[in-house]
Protein backbone atom coordinates (compact mmCIF):
# COMPACT_ATOMS: atom_id res chain seq x y z
CA UNK A 1 0.00 0.00 0.00
CA UNK A 2 1.33 3.40 -1.01
CA UNK A 3 0.32 6.64 0.74
CA UNK A 4 -0.80 9.13 -1.92
CA UNK A 5 -1.97 11.90 0.36
CA UNK A 6 -2.60 12.75 3.98
CA UNK A 7 -4.33 15.71 5.57
CA UNK A 8 -6.02 16.65 8.81
CA UNK A 9 -9.28 15.27 7.38
CA UNK A 10 -8.32 12.18 5.39
CA UNK A 11 -5.69 9.71 4.23
CA UNK A 12 -5.55 8.36 0.69
CA UNK A 13 -3.80 5.06 0.02
CA UNK A 14 -3.23 3.24 -3.28
CA UNK A 15 -3.19 -0.55 -3.51
CA UNK A 16 -1.67 -0.89 -6.97
CA UNK A 17 -2.14 -4.62 -7.56
CA UNK A 18 -5.88 -4.20 -6.90
CA UNK A 19 -6.25 -0.86 -8.76
CA UNK A 20 -7.83 0.46 -5.56
CA UNK A 21 -7.78 3.82 -3.80
CA UNK A 22 -8.78 3.79 -0.15
CA UNK A 23 -9.86 7.05 1.44
CA UNK A 24 -10.03 7.03 5.22
CA UNK A 25 -11.91 10.02 6.60
CA UNK A 26 -10.89 11.24 10.07
CA UNK A 27 -12.90 12.55 13.03
CA UNK A 28 -11.46 16.04 12.41
CA UNK A 29 -14.14 16.29 9.71
CA UNK A 30 -16.39 17.61 12.48
CA UNK A 31 -14.57 20.94 11.95
CA UNK A 32 -14.80 20.85 8.16
CA UNK A 33 -16.56 23.61 6.24
CA UNK A 34 -18.13 23.17 2.82
CA UNK A 35 -15.17 24.90 1.20
CA UNK A 36 -12.67 22.67 3.02
CA UNK A 37 -14.63 19.57 1.98
CA UNK A 38 -14.54 20.69 -1.65
CA UNK A 39 -10.79 21.25 -1.39
CA UNK A 40 -10.30 17.75 -0.01
CA UNK A 41 -12.52 16.21 -2.70
CA UNK A 42 -10.95 18.23 -5.53
CA UNK A 43 -7.76 16.22 -5.06
CA UNK A 44 -9.38 12.90 -6.11
CA UNK A 45 -9.38 13.33 -9.91
CA UNK A 46 -5.60 13.79 -9.87
CA UNK A 47 -5.34 10.09 -8.91
CA UNK A 48 -7.70 8.74 -11.58
CA UNK A 49 -4.83 8.57 -14.09
CA UNK A 50 -3.36 5.68 -12.02
CA UNK A 51 -5.80 3.26 -13.67
CA UNK A 52 -8.11 3.13 -10.65
CA UNK A 53 -10.98 0.67 -10.96
CA UNK A 54 -12.16 0.70 -7.34
CA UNK A 55 -12.60 3.32 -4.63
CA UNK A 56 -13.27 2.57 -0.98
CA UNK A 57 -14.37 5.42 1.28
CA UNK A 58 -14.03 4.49 4.94
CA UNK A 59 -16.37 7.00 6.58
CA UNK A 60 -16.62 5.40 10.00
CA UNK A 61 -15.17 8.55 11.57
CA UNK A 62 -16.71 11.05 9.14
CA UNK A 63 -18.64 13.77 10.94
CA UNK A 64 -19.25 16.15 8.05
CA UNK A 65 -22.71 16.26 6.43
CA UNK A 66 -22.69 16.67 2.65
CA UNK A 67 -25.32 19.36 1.99
CA UNK A 68 -27.34 19.33 -1.30
CA UNK A 69 -25.29 22.05 -3.03
CA UNK A 70 -22.10 20.08 -2.31
CA UNK A 71 -23.77 16.86 -3.51
CA UNK A 72 -24.39 18.57 -6.84
CA UNK A 73 -20.80 19.89 -6.93
CA UNK A 74 -19.49 16.32 -6.32
CA UNK A 75 -21.62 14.97 -9.16
CA UNK A 76 -20.39 17.59 -11.62
CA UNK A 77 -16.73 17.77 -10.55
CA UNK A 78 -15.81 14.34 -9.21
CA UNK A 79 -18.33 11.67 -10.26
CA UNK A 80 -18.23 12.43 -13.98
CA UNK A 81 -14.42 12.29 -13.97
CA UNK A 82 -14.51 8.97 -12.06
CA UNK A 83 -16.85 7.44 -14.64
CA UNK A 84 -14.84 8.83 -17.56
CA UNK A 85 -11.60 7.41 -16.13
CA UNK A 86 -13.02 3.87 -15.81
CA UNK A 87 -13.87 3.54 -12.11
CA UNK A 88 -16.15 0.49 -11.82
CA UNK A 89 -16.98 0.07 -8.14
CA UNK A 90 -17.38 2.40 -5.19
CA UNK A 91 -17.71 1.08 -1.63
CA UNK A 92 -18.63 3.14 1.41
CA UNK A 93 -18.09 2.09 5.01
CA UNK A 94 -20.61 4.21 6.86
CA UNK A 95 -20.26 5.41 10.43
CA UNK A 96 -22.70 5.96 13.26
CA UNK A 97 -23.50 9.57 12.32
CA UNK A 98 -26.88 9.12 10.61
CA UNK A 99 -26.91 12.56 8.97
CA UNK A 100 -23.49 12.06 7.46
CA UNK A 101 -24.45 8.58 6.21
CA UNK A 102 -27.70 9.74 4.61
CA UNK A 103 -25.99 12.70 2.96
CA UNK A 104 -23.39 10.37 1.40
CA UNK A 105 -26.11 8.09 0.06
CA UNK A 106 -27.99 11.06 -1.41
CA UNK A 107 -24.83 12.29 -3.14
CA UNK A 108 -24.52 8.90 -4.81
CA UNK A 109 -28.01 9.09 -6.30
CA UNK A 110 -26.76 11.76 -8.70
CA UNK A 111 -26.99 11.27 -12.45
CA UNK A 112 -23.28 11.27 -13.33
CA UNK A 113 -22.36 8.35 -11.08
CA UNK A 114 -24.99 5.89 -12.29
CA UNK A 115 -22.58 3.71 -14.37
CA UNK A 116 -20.55 2.90 -11.24
CA UNK A 117 -21.62 -0.01 -9.02
CA UNK A 118 -22.06 1.37 -5.47
CA UNK A 119 -22.62 -0.44 -2.17
CA UNK A 120 -22.63 0.53 1.52
CA UNK A 121 -21.11 -1.47 4.35
CA UNK A 122 -20.82 -1.52 8.12
CA UNK A 123 -17.15 -2.54 8.14
CA UNK A 124 -14.08 -2.31 5.95
CA UNK A 125 -13.54 -6.07 5.70
CA UNK A 126 -16.91 -6.61 4.00
CA UNK A 127 -16.33 -3.61 1.74
CA UNK A 128 -12.91 -4.90 0.64
CA UNK A 129 -14.29 -8.38 -0.02
CA UNK A 130 -17.00 -7.00 -2.28
CA UNK A 131 -14.97 -4.36 -4.08
CA UNK A 132 -12.19 -6.75 -5.06
CA UNK A 133 -14.41 -9.76 -5.91
Could you please describe the fold and organization of this structure?
- The longest helix has 18 residues, at 68-85.
- The chain is α/β, with parallel strands linked by helices.
- The chain contains four helices and six strands.
- It has a six-stranded mixed β-sheet, sandwiched between helices.
- The protein has one domain (2-131): 2-Layer Sandwich (Transcription Regulator spoIIAA).
- Helices cover 34% and strands 26% of the residues.
Which tags fit this structure?
133 residues; alpha/beta; Transcription Regulator spoIIAA; six-stranded mixed β-sheet; 4 helices; 26% strand; globular
Tell me the layout of helices and strands.
Elements (H helix, E strand, L loop, with lengths): L1 E5 L3 E6 L4 E6 L8 H9 L11 E6 L8 H18 L3 E6 L3 H10 L9 E5 L2 H8 L2
Parallel strand pairs: 3-4, 4-5, 5-6
Antiparallel strand pairs: 1-2, 2-3
Helix pairs in contact: 1-2, 2-3
Going across the major beta sheet, what is the strand order? 1-2-3-4-5-6
Supply the CATH architecture: 2-Layer Sandwich
Radius of gyration: 13 Å
Record field, number of beta strands: 6
Overall number of structural domains: 1
Provide the CATH topology.
Transcription Regulator spoIIAA
What is the succession of H and E elements? Answer: EEEHEHEHEH
- Percent of sequence in beta strands: 25-35%
Number of contiguous helices: 4
Shape: globular
| Largest sheet data | 6 strands, mixed
Instruction: Return the structural class.
Output: alpha/beta
What helical percentage do the residues reach? 25-40%
CATH class: Alpha Beta
The N- to C-terminal Cα distance equals: 18 Å
Mean pLDDT: 88
